[in-house]
Amino acid sequence: MTNHDNGTAGKAARRPERTVVPVDDDRSLPVPEHVAVILDGNRRWAEIHDVPVVDAYRLGATRVRELMVACDDARIPFVTVWALSKDNLRRGAASVRVIAEAVTAELVAMAETRRWRIRVLGSVADLPADAARTLREVVRTTEDCAGAVLNVAVAYSGRSDIAAAAAALLTGAQPAGLDVAEVEHRLVRGLSTAGQPDIDLLIRTAGEQRLSDFMLWQAAHAELYFTETLWPDFENKHFELALRWYGQRHRRYGE
């Protein structure tokens, strides 16, 4: 496992630290309010285990439910997972369908529990029509759930997210003389995660150490945690290690 300090270009408002007591320790450590995970390594896992790629994605999808249960236990109210990037759409229709079907099947099962509020971020219209319809229905049926929020990013691009927010800002009626801070405030309201806190802890599995166009605005002050573990192998023990690492960090918010 490797981890690196994240750079920050500006200052973010400090939020009150929340604490959790680890199971095997009596010390109270800060716990993130918003965790994001880049679900990387499914195809590599399939190659290593000599199984169809769809099996890896199905197992990976069940790991999302396990992650949500662990976040409930840690009292983490916002979770974002990146299941499919906009660039992944270039892999071809058959490949995209495999991922979409695995993700939608698990989300339908999760929605039936009425345990979490599920939101879908990204260009859903670019997915197979049946998958897009199913995802919209999942969002509709869980919108009144009182549990943690699960953002599922599919066909998602951080640049596109910011561009869409900027376009909304430009097309709306704006008072003259807006200062930079007010422009930023209005821009944030146009992001796909509007109304949610920024990401505190961003985890990427499978060893890659870059954001790859994921949540570029929202992750500006996130602690970045990289692990060699492939996503289908990512279990509660790996998540607990990430939380413990986060809890021992001293967050400066650009100061």
From TrEMBL:
Q: Does the keyword Oxidoreductase apply?
A: no
Which residue windows does the record flag with biased composition (Basic and acidic residues)?
Answer: 14-25
> Might you give the EC number(s) for this enzyme?
2.5.1.-
Q: How are cofactors bound according to the entry's free-text note? A: Binds 2 magnesium ions per subunit.
Identify the cofactor(s): Mg(2+)
Q: Where are the transmembrane segments?
A: none
Task: Map out region (Disordered) in residue numbers.
Answer: 1-25
Q: Which CDD domains match?
A: Cis_IPPS
Catalytic residues, chain numbering: D40, N88
Q: What's one Pfam family the UniProt record gives for this protein?
A: Prenyltransf
Gene3D superfamilies given in the database record:
Decaprenyl diphosphate synthase-like (3.40.1180.10)
Positions binding substrate in this chain are: G41, N42, R43, R44, W45, S85, K86, D87, R91, R204, R210, L211, S212
Origin superkingdom: Bacteria
The cellular component terms of Gene Ontology attached to this UniProt record, alphabetical and capped at eight, are: plasma membrane
InterPro entries reported for this sequence: UPP_synth-like, UPP_synth-like_CS, UPP_synth-like_sf
Keywords, A to Z? Answer: Magnesium, Metal-binding, Transferase
Top enzyme class, one word, equals: transferase
One example GO MF annotation: Z-farnesyl diphosphate synthase activity
Example GO biological process: polyprenol biosynthetic process
Binding residues for Mg(2+), per the UniProt record? D40, E223
Q: How does it assemble?
A: Homodimer.
PANTHER family reported for this sequence:
DEHYDRODOLICHYL DIPHOSPHATE SYNTHASE COMPLEX SUBUNIT DHDDS, DEHYDRODOLICHYL DIPHOSPHATE SYNTHASE FAMILY MEMBER
The family database entries (NCBIfam families) matched by this protein are listed as: uppS (TIGR00055)
Function in brief: Catalyzes the condensation of isopentenyl diphosphate (IPP) with allylic pyrophosphates generating different type of terpenoids.
Q: Which family does it belong to?
A: Belongs to the UPP synthase family. Z-FPP synthase subfamily.
Q: What is this protein called?
A: Isoprenyl transferase
Q: What is the species of this protein?
A: Allokutzneria albata (Kibdelosporangium albatum)
